Amino acid sequence: MKMSKQFPLNSLRVFEAAARHMSFTRAGEELRLTQTAVSYQIKLLEDTLGEQLFLRRPRQVMLTDAGARLAPKISEAFEIIDEALAGTKSQSDSTLIIHTTATFAARWLAHHLGTFQLENPGIAVRLETSQEMVDFTRTEADIAIRSGSGQWPGLRAHFLMKSDFTPMLSPALAETIGGVHEPADILKLRIIDPGDIWWLHWFAAAGLPEENLQGRPISRLGAQTIEAAAAIAGQGVAILKPEFYADDVALGRLIQPFELRATDGSDYWFAYPEARRHSKKITAFREFMRKMMPTFRD
């Protein structure tokens, strides 16, 4: 067993304060302990060491030779610990770790993170992407931006935007069939990822609830932003969230043939642990999102 494991760290902290103040009373005031509790911790340490550390006299305590040898080394050890903890907290406070989907990162965050950092030069940003909802107890993260219900135990969630969707495709692909004029025209073209449940929701909303997409070539591309790139290249029709691709529509790379949108009941949310709601870096980014996204609400 390591020697350090044999000693009660609380007692060492109490000893360090008492030796520095030369007073059990003032050590107790600093550590918010009663004088009785301070005396108990000192006695526990003395019993563990087998050495008397203080001479108790009326209204005064004095270090013994053993106590005088020990005190500066214990003080130095706690200074090293405090410095290490302060450095860790400083690094933690200065780096904001955001977990989100590749699509939200590429289509929204990438356009706005630079502004956030200009407004908050003391906060660095680390962006992590995945399709899974982050588990804050297992993953290093400060906030998550995800689609879902917004009801997650232990998390505070703020609504960002609706997660609705509609078919989008390149103008050139639409022209291969003389244009897309009604929902059924979509079925004349290759559908990117026909196994995506969004298609069933949209076809049902369009009055084609019985449409069966089975038997079509499966193309799981892993992220909406990759499906959009395939659609821009004329590889098929993708089911996308139009707000993320307004630039591509403006540049003529994509068209949205129908105003009709559908939803699967999920929306985009800004979430973080309830216990960390007062964190300065989380507060700063929450207020930035509130300013930049008109649909943000508590």
Automatic annotation (TrEMBL):
Keywords: DNA-binding, Transcription, Transcription regulation. It comes from Aliirhizobium smilacinae. InterPro entries: LysR-type_TF_proteobact-type (IPR058163), LysR_HTH_N (IPR000847), LysR_subst-bd (IPR005119), WH-like_DNA-bd_sf (IPR036388), WH_DNA-bd_sf (IPR036390). Signal peptide: none annotated. One of its GO terms (biological process) is DNA-templated transcription. The keyword DNA-binding applies. It holds the Pfam family HTH_1. Residues 7-64 form the HTH lysR-type domain. The keyword Transcription regulation applies. GO terms for molecular function: DNA-binding transcription factor activity; sequence-specific DNA binding. This is LysR family transcriptional regulator.
